[in-house]
Design goal:
Blueprint (H helix, E strand, L loop, with lengths): L2 H4 L2 E2 L5 E5 L2 E6 L2 E6 L4 E8 L2 E8 L5 H22 L2 E8 L4 E5 L2 E5 L6 E4 L4 E6 L2 E6 L2 H12 L11 E4 L10 H7 L1
Antiparallel strand pairs: 1-6, 2-3, 3-4, 5-6, 7-12, 7-13, 8-9, 9-10, 11-12
Length: 186
């Protein structure tokens, strides 16, 4: 039995949820999201006296792969509900002399030491705010936001010697000693 999959997902006020033909649609103040469920997973909308909730179930609770999908899709639907109510946010930090960033108009211009600045087109539903050397990405879709942040970080990942590059705020970059420190140790 999936402990996570059994828990009902409460629907806050101001959020509309529709379940039809294996598709869950969630609409709220921050946007609308939809997800197609696999044939083994079913979602049911309950209107109980304690409030509205979504209950996720599976066809065969004994099969290991189906149980894994049960918990996964319950969490994905819960993330959709939270995304359309509160939204999600990721922050990236650009470290390096001469590294510049500018955002606006659905794209991000990143100048991180290459011979040319890189124009990064942001997907629909992702907003960007640039303040000094911090990029703030926000949106309702947690999965899309994480993938976009990872793609931006891949443009120039932090290197271990000087720490230059694009990293998540709060990420710890493991530093290495250079040649001179090794030679002095001998």
């Amino acid at each position: 039995m999936s402990r996570i999959g059994k828990k009902p997902i409460p629907i806050p006020a101001g959020v509309e949820v529709a379940v039809s033909d294996g598709v869950v649609s969630v609409k709220g103040p921050k946007g609308s999201l939809r997800r197609v469920l696999p044939p083994q997973v079913m979602a049911v909308l309950n209107s109980a006296e304690s409030g509205k909730a979504i209950k996720v179930s599976v066809q065969n609770q004994e099969e290991v792969r189906t149980r894994a999908l049960w918990g996964l899709f319950r969490t994905l639907i819960a993330n959709m509900v939270e995304g359309v109510t509160k939204g999600y946010e990721k922050k990236l930090e650009v470290i390096g002399v001469g590294y510049k960033i500018a955002g606006g108009g659905g794209k991000l211009t990143v100048d991180v030491g290459y011979s040319h600045p890189i124009e990064f087109a942001l997907p629909a539903g992702i907003n960007v705010a640039v303040e000094k050397n911090v990029i703030t990405l926000s949106g309702a879709d947690k999965e899309l936001l994480g993938e976009t942040a990872a793609r931006i970080r891949r443009l120039r990942p932090p290197e271990p010697y000087k720490g230059k590059g694009i990293k998540y705020v709060g990420e710890v970059v493991r530093r290495k000693a250079g040649k001179t420190a090794k030679a002095a140790a001998k």
